[in-house]
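Figure 6 in text form: structure in, sequence out.
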């Protein structure tokens, strides 16, 4: 697939490669990559690893939706290694994602978002080129809806956990609860 690359200094466009091919992966270096239940499940299964081996906890951004565990009120994110996502590896001066087949949904959707029912590029993005949203509209609209549904599922899990676990338990107990629920959700959806 080729995309229209829009240059910054004029309205002239040219045909270019898939934008990520020429990217310096700044999004993987600058952002903390927060994950939901489905992301954690896909990574665990895809890597054959326990969530504790690739997750890091951060103080909750939203106190109503933070996971209430022994470790505090927390959110889940991917671990960082050398100030970048732990799954970003360098090869011949090019960085690439080593979990591309099952990377977190926020990574798949970047730099797009839905606004008023339309697919748009985020206003604050780190991409070196403009994306032609028309070429990605069908795929990304479907993906962003799925992503939104998965975050709603995760939020409900966190709320249920917090409401039913007044005596704080370790994060590992929440992760087990979460992974079991996602496995059931995947089994139901086929």
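Output sequence:
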């Amino acid at each position: 697939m080729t995309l229209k690359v829009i240059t910054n200094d004029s309205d002239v466009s040219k045909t270019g490669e898939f934008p990520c091919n020429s990217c310096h992966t700044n999004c993987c270096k600058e952002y903390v990559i927060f994950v939901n239940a489905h992301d954690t499940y896909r990574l665990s299964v895809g890597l054959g690893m326990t969530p504790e081996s690739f997750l890091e906890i951060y103080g909750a951004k939203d106190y109503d939706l933070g996971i209430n565990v022994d470790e505090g009120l927390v959110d889940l994110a991917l671990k960082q290694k050398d100030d970048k996502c732990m799954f970003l590896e360098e090869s011949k001066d090019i960085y690439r994602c080593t979990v591309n087949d099952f990377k977190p949904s926020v990574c798949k959707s970047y730099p797009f978002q839905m606004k008023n029912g339309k697919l748009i590029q985020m206003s604050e993005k780190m991409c070196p080129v403009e994306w032609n949203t028309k070429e990605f509209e069908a795929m990304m609209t479907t993906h962003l809806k799925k992503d939104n549904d998965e975050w709603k599922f995760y939020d409900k899990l966190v709320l249920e956990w917090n409401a039913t676990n007044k005596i704080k338990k370790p994060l590992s107990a929440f992760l087990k609860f979460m992974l079991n629920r996602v496995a059931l959700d995947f089994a139901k959806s086929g």
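Caption detail: The helical segments are 26-30, 37-47, 105-109, 133-164, 171-189.
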